[in-house]
Amino acid sequence: MKKNGLTITMVIEAQSANYGEGIGNISQLKKMTKGNGETYSYISRQAIRYNIVNQMQCDNTPVEDAGVVQFAPMASISDYPEIDLFGYMKTSSKSEDKKGGQNIRSAVVRLSNAISLEPYKSDLDFLTNIGLAKRKVGLDNAIAQSEIHNSLYVYTITIDLDRIGEDSNDNVSLPRNEKARRVRLLLDTVQFLYRDIKGRRENLSPVFAVGGVYERKNPYFEGRVELSKKGLNIEMVQAVIDSCEDCKNNTVVGCLNGKFSNQEQIKSLEPKTIDQLFDYLKKEVDIYYA
């Protein structure tokens, strides 16, 4: 079998990186409850996608209002990497020279939500605009509250390398060097990803990552990277690596030295630096498209 499934599961550290709909003067974090009854904050895959395409500088695909905002029917993956990587649904109305209907291309790059590894404990930040209100007599001081959570988060990216640059809807097949360029640019962006929110810039660069280019398009390590009392749960990661020959032969681990309390245990995975891991993945991409 040919290796055409790139997947990487990453641990990042962030603070209060995605808010949902607020209640009154309280800004609420996006949260979910797991089976253990604990509440965890998360960064939605839509938010991560927004930051990726923005920092790749490919968020320029034309859109139109056809009842709902959608990508323009004439937009092609040959000109717009965004819809090459993340897919599209384009609809057109019936006319004399068109049959009308819709074309769908599912995402080639799949993202999971970034879910916190540490439970949310209902911490709140108390906010006022007293600094502005004091500048003029008679101005009222507004008060607001914002949920806050500083945690490690984990999310997964999976890429179907054989579908990059291929669109049967428009009969497009891009040159192999352009396919490789787009995937390398995506990996470079993810390695140094950040997120602007509420006046802060959060560093979303991974502190731990595990993945590779595999024969199966399976996100092997999604839901398999957790914390234990002593740090990162190495036993679970090793169990996944040992689960099949595909994982044993093609998995690479990257880690920021000194971030986890069980750093000595992590050494059993023979980790590279984060930079070395991404260099390895980009070389595998070049080999695939060579």
UniProtKB/TrEMBL annotation:
Transmembrane segments: none annotated. Pfam families: DevR. GO terms for biological process: defense response to virus. Keywords: Antiviral defense. InterPro entries: Cas7/Cst2/DevR_sub_I-B/Tneap, CRISPR-assoc_Cas7/Cst2/DevR. CRISPR (clustered regularly interspaced short palindromic repeat) is an adaptive immune system that provides protection against mobile genetic elements (viruses, transposable elements and conjugative plasmids). CRISPR clusters contain spacers, sequences complementary to antecedent mobile elements, and target invading nucleic acids. CRISPR clusters are transcribed and processed into CRISPR RNA (crRNA). This is CRISPR-associated Cst2 family autoregulator. It comes from Sedimentibacter saalensis.
